[in-house]
Amino acid sequence: MRNLKLSSLISLATLATSLLLTCLSTNATESATGINAIYPGAHWEEVPAASISTTCKQGQAEARDYLQTQATTALLAIRKGQIVFSYGHPEVPGIIESARKSVLSMLYGKYVENGLIDLEQTLTAAGIDDVGGLLESEKQARIRDLLTARSGVFHPAANSGDDLGKAPARGTQAPGSYFLYNNWDFNAAGTVLENATHKTVYELFDADIARPLQLEDFQLAKQKKMGDSSKSIHLPYHLLLSTRDMARLGVLALHQGNWNGQQLIPAAWMRKTTSSFTPSADMHPASTAARKVGYGYMWWVPEEPADSVLHGAYLAWGLHGQYILVLPKLQMVIAHQRKVPVNGSWDVEKVGKNAFFHVAKILASACQPE
Question: What was the pLDDT predicted at 37?
Fold first, then answer.
């Protein structure tokens, strides 16, 4: 009998120790990120219906009605690692257009930290040139300037959808001194990463992010670059992602690069890149400045008042309405997809920033954690 009691006591002690270590591990993750780190499993779970407030239900209905007036393919709102609102077809992959740039920023972090990439390296040192040749002054731009859209290189890009048409003459702006949203910068930044790692952007994304995050719909074989190589040899690395996989990227960003205790991206890099480096007042042209959204290292940073639910947020932003909005203060992520092309056409209706912010504010205000 004594041996049985002793055995039971030992078992209880072992269980208690195991539970304590689990709690300590969870707390350590929370301490590292500063927020309660909750992650989805192999598949997303929904917030239990019983825990959804009347206010949230009203917000959900309002958001749904509004989205029916937009060209939205899908929207997911994530609260503490669970779906609190779903609309459309979040499993359908689409080209995320310029939201790819924020993904590239995430990929850079590991290789900046380990020294494989030096942000102060010039384009000359990195071996970057292009069709017709870069000017000597343009070759003095640093890799850091590419990531912050301040290279001063106004060479045509292989794809459209930027502000190059309103750029000053080439060679007139010193590297680092002038913000212009030019796809050449971001495409060349992709080339720099590929040259440094000897892997494609897609291979890096698959190994460093897609597999650890258990993306449900990402297929490496279906990813391909596109663009006009007669204009530039640096082609855009378009990503084909579903809305529910975009939301996982948002959760990774929310927890400062940490996924279930594994630091996939340096936390310091995530803090740096998602903070405003260029306020809207310093942007060119005036139409871009008027949007009142700052820019970090390939992440957009809304300039919202302190009482706004979007204050402190940051986002990835694609041309036709692909968004990954991260709201650290509310422990929320909102992912939105406008699938393109439609029947082979890119000339389709967009879901603009104002429309997306409108529905995001509805959901964030109504469904934030209590």
Answer: 83
Can you say how many angstroms the Cα of residue 143 is from the centroid of all Cα atoms in its chain? 19
Q: Could you give the CA distance from residue 64 to residue 330 in angstroms, rounded to a whole number?
A: 21
Report phi then psi at 63, rounded to 5.
-65, -40
Domains of the chain: 49-131+190-367 (3.40.710.10)
Give the model confidence (pLDDT) of 160-194 as tens digits: 999 999 999 999 999 999 999 999 999 999 999 99
209, 223 contact by CB (below 8 A): no
Average pLDDT, the chain: 92
CA end-to-end distance (rounded Å), the chain? 50
Q: What is the pTM of this model?
A: 0.91
Give the pLDDT confidence score for residue 18 in this predicted structure.
38
Annotate 200-221 with b (16+ C-beta within 10 A) or e (fewer). bbbebbbebbbeebbbbbbeee
Beta bridge partners of residue 74, listed in sequence order = 88, 337
